[in-house]
Amino acid sequence: MREGLGWTLHLLAGAFLFILLLAHVSQLHLISFGGGEQALEWSAVLTRALSRPQVIAYLVFLAAALYHGFFGLRNLLIELPVFRRRVAAVTFTVSIIGIVLFVYGLYTTLALYLQGGGA
Amino acid sequence: MSARKKDPNTYIFKVFRYQPGKDEKPRFQTYEVPLLHPGMTVLEGLIYIKENLDPTLAVRYSCRMAVCGSCALYVNGKGILACHTALREFPSGKLTVEPMPNYPVVKDLMTRMDEFFDHHRQVKPYLLRPQDRAEIENPTREFLQLPEQLEEFLQFSYCIKCGLCVSACPTVATDPDFLGPQALMTVARYNRDSRDGGTVYRLKVVDAPHGLWNCHFAGACTEVCPKGVDPALAIQYTKRESVLHALHLNKLPRFRKKLAPVAPPPKPNRRPGIPPAPERTVPEAPAS
Questions:
Q1: pLDDT digits over A13-46, tens only?
Q2: Which CATH number does the domain housing residue A53 bear?
Q3: Is B77 left (phi over 0), alpha (psi -120 to 50) or beta?
Q4: Which among B203, B208, B214 has CB closest to A79?
Q5: In this complex, which of A4, A6, A75 lies closest to B245 when CB atoms are compared?
Q6: How far is A81 from chain B (nearest CA, A)?
Q7: Structural domains of chain B, ranges and CATH numbers in brackets
């Protein structure tokens, strides 16, 4: 992948994360947006986990956060003298870790959604 | 020699001395240099040392008028062109003269510039027109360019390749493979030129690890440039171009680059209404 495309996605993911984090914090912690203690109860958590738009938002959030975080980590690493000449290896390793974490997040989100009868 | 300034017309030069392979480690040597005339420059001071006090001092210079960029070095921690900086700019009278950082030292104040020029060459610092190869290889006429098209890149063409921007760059200091501000600025200089069609080629070179995106926009390159060029701005321009190409937005009419056409062949009478030149009154000199 060209660096320019990687960076463009990195910036877009960052902007997207900002919006999603605002929504997330509002939903869970701001009373005027329906947040607060009630939003933290298990039944409320389960309700959200079984809602299709909520699940899609969680997965997009996960993908954006993982991409933004791991692409940033990769850029930090390839500037270190020890990894400077190992760009492909660093990119591959970081990508694998990111994909594994995404699959794990996908599994837990979808397992709860499907087992809870959210399909 | 004493490191204390004795009179206002004497300057104390504390000069970096080091010859790799011969000296164990760098050292500083102090010289007293008289102010020979009010506009005396740092370079003149160094030449005075070389001619009168210590001929073994190595310093590189050529034009002595801030055009060639050979005499770039650091005085009191600041990057300057030695020929373009007057001694009067140092009221303390004490100058610590060092070679440019981020470059290997050849001897004393001379640094090796091979990598700098390698990076410069990598971005093909000349007009590329793959679609107009015949005209480029055997030019017949000039390419037409409007003054406002010239303005797009003019300031970047003032670069004299002194290397001070690379010496000031904190990214080069930590990542020697980084292309550096000068090469990246050159990309913008040519990509923004309406006569050039090599944008895709140059983006391939710089849109890679240790390229364009490693610039953290510290701005040290722009701060230090003795010619007033703004490499940090040039890099931002190239980043924008890279994003447009990554998203294929460069094909939109707004962002599409229109190549300057080749000038039309001159017409026999280009300005109608102007009478022809009168006949010669003096016979033409015979060809020798």
A1: 999 999 989 988 888 887 776 667 777 788 888 8
A2: 1.20.1300
A3: left
A4: B214
A5: A4
A6: 7
A7: 10-111 (3.10.20.30), 114-251 (1.10.1060.10)
